[in-house]
Amino acid sequence: MPMIQNLIFFFCSLAWPAQQFVCSSATAETPSVPSHASPTRAVCASEMAGASFFDRMVSQLRSTSKYYTGYPKDLGPSRIIPFTSERQFVQLLHEGRPVVVAFTIKCTYTQHLDKVLEEAAATFYPHIKFVRVECPKYPGFCLTRQKTEYPFLEVFYNPEQAANPGKIVDPSITKYSAKVLPFNYDQSVYGFREYFKKYGFKYSEAN
Asked: Which residue has the higher pLDDT, 99 or 63?
């Protein structure tokens, strides 16, 4: 019966596409940050307005059918690292592993992405690190990425100490630069696997 109910809901939702929605957070916005740019008012990338029939079908199937996604799975303890500060992030980069960073806000698609990230983080642990940034909590870090649609993924690797020309204001502060690649593959374990192969990231998969 649950499977039949899921299929009925799935086909009904295709007949009446979801309305456009904006994800927001109750977190107070910094006055110096324009409201249209703040992650607390960012548009969720999963909004369905103008999407093709196929896009709506795939998105709805992923979000409603456990038979498609393969969940729930016993993945053990979470391998996703929560972002807490830029200092912590730099230290993580200097462990020498590629770091997949998910920049997220609270919205429907983020719930699906969280499940994908949990499985991927467990599959590629410890060779590839996965970090989740809650952008309403850390708007400054997220705004540096200059994105307007959330959630999105980027891959950071090969950190280097950045050149610091001119007067050094605080010698205790060290700036770093890292190579960053956008993640534009399918957001699934398969997509991550193909992406890592393309860019030559070494890994082995946990059983």
From this structure: 99
Average pLDDT, the chain: 73
Mean pLDDT of 102-131: 93
- Phi, psi (degrees; rounded to nearest 5) at 163: -65, 145
> Which residue has tokens 């009446």?
16
Cα 143 from Cα 180, distance rounded (Å): 15
- Kindly write down the DSSP assignment for every residue of 109-178, as one continuous string: HHHHHHHHHHHHHHHHTTTSEEEEEETTT-HHHHHTT---EESEEEEEEEEEEPP--S--S-TT---EEE
Nearest C-alpha neighbor of 120 from the set 161, 84, 168, 153? 153
SS3 70: coil
Domain boundaries, the chain: 2-199
Longest dimension (CA), the chain: 70
3-state helix, strand, coil in the chain (%, to 5): 35, 15, 45
What are the pLDDT digits (tens) for 72-114? 567 789 999 999 999 999 999 989 899 999 999 988 888 889 9
Q: How far apart are CA 118 and CA 21, in angstroms?
A: 26
Instruction: Given CATH 3.40.980.10, say whether it is the number of domain 2-199.
Output: no
This model's pTM is above 0.70: no
